[in-house]
Amino acid sequence: MQYNQNLSQQQKQVQKMAMTQQLQQSIQMLQYSTDDLLTFLESKALENPLIDVKIESDYADLPIRHTSKKNYEGPETSYLNQIPDRGMSLFESLLAQIHLNYRDTYLRQLIIFFTEYVDVNGYLTITLEEAVRQTGADYIQMLDALILLQQLDPAGVGARDLQECLLLQIERDNEAPPLAYVVIEEEFENFANRKWKEVANRYGVDLPTIQEIHDYIQSLSPFPGAAYGESTEQYINPDLLVNIKGETIEVLSTRSGAPVIEFQQRYFDKMAETGDREVKQYIKEKKAEFDWIKRSVTQRGDTILRVGTEIVSRQAAFFLDTERPLKPMTLKEIAEELEIHESTVSRAVNGKYLQTKFGVFELRSFFTTGLSQNSDGEEVSAADVQTRIKQLVEHENKAKPLSDQKIVDMLQSEGVEISRRTVAKYRDILGIAASSKRKRYD
């Protein structure tokens, strides 16, 4: 078998997009939130002596109260203002109560041992048997320690399961319904599964009495320790501001809280005076980096403003109508209108916020898919359908709640084509229970 190999030269022209490091960072900057952008710019300022990062503030319109220097205590003069307010954790609260209420005995040491096994929700994560094995104490001693732990605040702390958590709270509440403790202790499963007729028959009461117990249980906390969770307040710096004057909607870029980069001209001039070639080359590269970052930041702001303006224009009814209706809108529609890539729109709306007089909203929240067409041939958004489902449930007969199929029939009578599965999905999203669990007996 003879094999022939022919070699020839061909010239082809192929277009390829080279993703340079600067281009990648420029794309990434568009995706950054305001806080992320500030962190990025500050890291660049550490590497580049020609970059100075400042936070833009717009407090010119705020009233200034005259204060004498003697009584003045501002953020710069009072170190106490620099200390963040942090609430006491559940463990710290329990420890403080133990030292306040119990003498320094071996029993107190066992209570403290238990606190180390109380999770952030207030539940005990160790069994009595395991506690006995680890401490070497008697079972009765550990049980006494657990009982004393469960007498601390908040009510329900130290419980080993939900049933015990509820019982501990009911036990302390003098306003609890008379049968609440007994029902939760003896008929917890039937009560939770809404087998209320069996529960009512056992105790010789009517269903409204069981309904009253249910309403009371709903007021108790299944996670008594959650209130002590350490939460850090997060402040949002809106990227856009919406001003409404009559029927006119104006979209502006916000200045307050936005990072601004400035060029260190004096440092540049001083370095340029040197005759060292390496120094001159160094500041030339750093100057080019500053120019690129400056352009990228400006382009980021312009892109967000363009996208935000188009979103507001398409969702004008949301800003003018008190019902806040949303029209179906996709990223692709905005991209085609602005003649940019869909991924650019996605980056421009993710983590970016718009401020109005009635609240702050993420730009991404204005995008909603169309579900169907109503009788007028207009597309109805999923958000509008969810709102309508919520309204139907709020005004239903609580003794005969609307089933998912009934909601489907009512929506279809209004011209909205929807399936029962979709109604169930939207109901779950809205946190609405099934009809069997919404039924009331009062």
TrEMBL record:
Keywords: DNA-binding, DNA-directed RNA polymerase, Nucleotidyltransferase, Sigma factor, Transcription, Transcription regulation, Transferase. The keyword Disulfide bond does not apply. Residues 82-267 form the RNA polymerase sigma factor 54 core-binding domain. It holds the Pfam family Sigma54_CBD. One of its GO terms (molecular function) is nucleotidyltransferase activity. GO terms for cellular component: DNA-directed RNA polymerase complex. One of its GO terms (biological process) is DNA-templated transcription initiation. The keyword Transcription regulation applies. PROSITE patterns: SIGMA54_1, SIGMA54_2, SIGMA54_3. It comes from the Bacteria. Residues 281-440 form the RNA polymerase sigma factor 54 DNA-binding domain. Belongs to the sigma-54 factor family. NCBIfam families: rpoN_sigma. This is RNA polymerase factor sigma-54. It comes from Vagococcus allomyrinae.
